[in-house]
């Protein structure tokens, strides 16, 4: 291991760390979405309290910056916009694999309601929190 590598480069190569950071961004986005739904029904003070209860990020900020970049890259590619393959670094490709893994993990943990599409808090819920559709609750 070359300890002279800049910090940024070691983040780019830490696939597990990036997967965790991407997953955290997904979870934060789901919580923001839930809070937006609630804001009409709760006081500003209550909303503030919920925001203050937001779990702390577990790893250094550089991971989330890199995760944001990778998500943008993955989203751009999903739109069908093509790039010459040589414009991607090895780290970009490893990073997009981390994005894909994080997305699969998130989708497994927060399956969408078959009726309204709303993501659930966990795969064991028996009723959609948004439309009350009966769910399988993780049974297959
Ligand atoms: Zn639903």
Identify the notable features of this structure and list them briefly.
binds zinc ion, 55% helix, 140 residues, single chain, 2 domains, mainly alpha
Describe the structure.
The longest helix has 24 residues. This protein starts with 6 loop residues before the first helix and ends in a 31-residue tail after the last helix. The protein folds into two domains: 103 residues, no CATH class; 29 residues, no CATH class. With 140 residues, the chain is mainly alpha-helical. Helix 2 packs across helix 5. The chain has five helices and no strands. The mean pLDDT is 89. The chain is 55% helix and 0% strand. The radius of gyration is 18 Å and the shape is globular. The relative contact order is 0.13. Zinc ion (ZN) binds next to loops.
* Assembly category: single chain
Count up the domains. 2
Share of residues in strands: under 5%
Shape: globular
Average pLDDT confidence is 89
Put simply, the count of helices is: 5
Bound molecules: zinc ion
Total beta strands? 0
